Amino acid sequence: MDIQTLAARVDEIWAGEEAADARELVKQALDLLNSGAIRVAERVGGEWTVNEWVKKAVLLHFRYSDNREMTAGPIEWFDKVALKTNWREAKVRSVPTAIARYGSFIEEGAVLMPCYINIGARVGAGTMIDTWSTVGSCAQVGKNCHISGGVGIGGVLEPLQASPVIIEDDVFFGARGEAAEGVIIEEGAVLAMGCYVAGSTKIYSVPEGRELPPGRIPARSVCVPGALASRDGSHQTYAIIIKKYRDERTDARTALTSILREGI
Ligand SMILES: CC(C)(COP(=O)(O)OP(=O)(O)OC[C@H]1O[C@@H](n2cnc3c(N)ncnc32)[C@H](O)[C@@H]1OP(=O)(O)O)[C@@H](O)C(=O)NCCC(=O)NCCS
């Protein structure tokens, strides 16, 4: 079945059509997602487009799958979604206790430190997902990014919002930061430690001398956590402050170490 037909069938099943082959069709979609052949969001002509039907397939997968016991030595789980396997074949270095659920896609040459990658998420080639970071369901992380220790990238299955978080290529996301609610971190942006970005988080740019629209961190910007005064001056709220755009000093402090990505 071609992908367009599969998409149309998944839409029908989502809308309530009783189909004898529903389980099989949803499984086909999950297998394609797992292999990277389809994705939840993709850039078309410079703009990010969400493939709604893929998100529907991910949710339907929960309806049509049964919980079952899974074990690793003495450790046991009880869940509907299998874990990804075959790391050698995928040419991905996956450090013990890294967990990626089936239906996520990790591109060749990525490195997973002990982290958690949820269903529908995508991680690009050469990207390091560092220790205790979580890549939420359907989140999209580009190539050659460093997602530092303890970073949280929000998922979109609950609540079922329109867009996943998108981290474009070459982004450095400093330790313990968080991105949620479909924000887009554009190519080459650098977020210092502890930056939290949600859909309404205020973004102030020092180089531009003004507040920028929320929801999008500009390409190559260097962001730090800060605060902005409220309109009536009665209080301050947390804000992302763009201090500058990337320069040689930033590049030196955020450079990726190729030796960690060699020999996979
Ligand atoms: C963002 C970062 C890369 C610095 O980039 P840089 O280009 O060298 O930045 P600079 O030192 O030139 O600082 C530029 C401005 O931002 C401010 N700044 C830099 N880092 C900051 C931080 N973490 N918090 C608050 N302000 C910060 C500086 O004080 C300076 O302000 P000024 O212009 O008013 O003097 C660095 O601060 C950082 O957060 N590194 C990430 C560490 C990390 O998470 N490692 C991974 C561990 S797993």
Q: How would you concisely characterize the structure shown here?
A:
This protein is an alpha/beta fold and 264 residues long. The chain is built from five helices and 26 strands.
Short key terms for the protein model shown above:
alpha/beta; 2,3,4,5-tetrahydropyridine-2,6-dicarboxylate N-succinyltransferase; 264 residues; UDP N-Acetylglucosamine Acyltransferase, domain 1; Tetrahydrodipicolinate-N-succinyltransferase, Chain A, domain 1; Hexapep; single chain; 5 helices; Trimer_LpxA-like_sf; 19% helix; 10-stranded mixed beta sheet; binds coenzyme A; 2 domains; 30% strand
Give me the secondary-structure topology:
Layout: H1 3-14, H2 22-35, E1 41-44, E2 47-50, H3 52-64, E3 68-72, E4 75-79, H4 87-90, E5 93-94, E6 99-100, E7 105-106, E8 111-112, E9 116-117, E10 122-123, E11 128-129, E12 134-135, E13 140-141, E14 146-147, E15 152-153, E16 166-167, E17 172-173, E18 178-179, E19 184-185, E20 190-191, E21 196-197, E22 202-205, E23 210-212, E24 216-217, E25 221-229, E26 236-245, H5 248-254
Bound molecules: coenzyme A.
Residues 130, 148-149, 174-175, 190, 192-193, 222, 224, 243-244, 249-250, 253-254 line the site of coenzyme A.
